[in-house]
Amino acid sequence: MNTELAWFTSTYSDGEGGNCVEVAAAPATVHVRDSKDRSGPLLAFAPDAWTAFVAFARTHAV
């Protein structure tokens, strides 16, 4: 089984790797990591929890 994740950074990122997170979606989990520490810890969210977080962030200008 291939466990390699395809990581994405926001198009709002400046491309310099500062203050950004990277996101990788898998079938049952959305993974999030710090773009400055790619070998560091990952956060894992259920897809519905991630969707709720993104909706909250958009409406509250986080």
Automatic annotation (TrEMBL):
Domain of life: Bacteria
Annotated DUF397 domain residues: 5-58
Name recorded for this polypeptide: DUF397 domain-containing protein
Lineage: Bacteria, Bacillati, Actinomycetota, Actinomycetes, Kitasatosporales
